[in-house]
Fold this protein.
Amino acid sequence: MSNTITVGTGPLTVDEVVAVARHGATVALSPESIAEVARSRAIIEKLADDPIPHYGVSTGFGALATKHIPVEQRAQLQRSLVRSHAAGSGREVEREVVRALMLLRISTLATGRTGIRPETLETYVGMLNAGITPVVREFGSLGCSGDLAPLSHCALALMGEGEVRDADGQLRSAADALAAAGLTPVELREKEGLALINGTDGMLGMLCLAIADLQQLVTVADLTASMSVEGLLGTDDVFAADLQQLRPQRGQALSAENLRKLLQDSEIRESHRDPSACTRVQDAYSLRCSPQVAGGARDTIAHATSVAGAELAAAVDNPVVTPDGRVESNGNFHGAPVAYVLDFLAIVAADLASIAERRTDRFLDVSRSNGLPPFLADDPGVDSGHMIAQYTQAAIVSELKRLASPASVDSIPSSAMQEDHVSMGWSAARKLRRSVDGLRRVLAIELLTAARGIQLRAPLRPGPASAAVIAALPSIGMPGPDRHLSPEIESAVDFVASGAAVAAAQSVTGPLH
């Protein structure tokens, strides 16, 4: 993908959002978008002189929308709007989230539906490209009327006020950072403050980042499941294509195909294929049903991606300048569609982690591990093996179950009951980020435990895919007396997060879904 993303030629994609937010790609405005922005701004300029009040142009906001604002106070109106709404509290939001939020606001502004001036939009783009990241606080958005407080902190920086992080991550005043980048703070005019803060950009940005992470982690989940099936002497017969076709769920079929590839040519599997020598009729659900669970997760991620795609094509503001020149109030800033799928994905993360933890626990229980030592310990009793690694998993899974409780069913009225139903989509997005991190850690511990279980099956050799993953897994070492386990877990988390785990498997299997 190019290091520069052009905005205004069509909807952004999830990958483009991630490229700018996480990997530092820059943004360019298309000539067509600049022309359309100028055209809609001319409409707003005409309304500014109209004796009839127009919301956001010549009136107050929210419950104060009936207040007519005289011409000489309108610049102050926009400044006051941004300053008062930049009311966030709590710890700083991650840089990648703020960059995603900024990009998505730029994308809406570039549609020409908000009435902003071209020079204001171009300064916003310049701020993003210079690596200037406004300090945004975690609490402040109700996910309706847009992510008001987070977007206001960004608009405040555009005005040369408040705090930012520069490209090196140093905390400095917005005025100093803009000056160093050769940018002039914006003096907001009619409608511009509202246009800068009235969108679902924060929750949508976090949705895009979560989708990218979960698309990777669902493949990791297939990988760790395959290694657990192998290490626990499970069967791959249940993953046969014809059995999956009896229930034609797309995600399930893709996960089962991954499992077949990953378990191919395993000596460990072949060692118990003879039904006369193997007395187990069926594997436990956590092994046998792994493609059903991971497949359902895939389908849910696909649904969330379709919702994100529609939102990425949206122009969210209130009021909007329609293509035929009308300026109309609307409710498109309500975050419900995004909030619902953010909550849905938190359920997916919790359940993928839950089944992974159950597979890990089977490795550690001598009554269920089919011949492995208790807790995979070198000298059980003296050594505890991976006993407490499972505790860590269990603690994370318990937290993920709490995080799976939906935020979008809650609503607290605001703005003197004018805004009497809100989405809480920002809150849903914040907890989903914690869920994704937790899932990554649970899968890393399963990977580490399954690798040790497979090593203990020697002299039987694992399949080439598992062997490649174990060989690439840093700091695993050979089974032996207990050692400091936390660094090994963190190394495995990095191994999963970097994509190296899937890459090692794919070096043998070819592309995985």
Observations:
- Residues 57 and 191 are 5 Å apart (CA to CA).
- Residues 211-509 form a domain with the Fumarase C; Chain A, domain 2 fold (CATH 1.20.200.10).
- The chain has two domains: 4-199, 211-509.
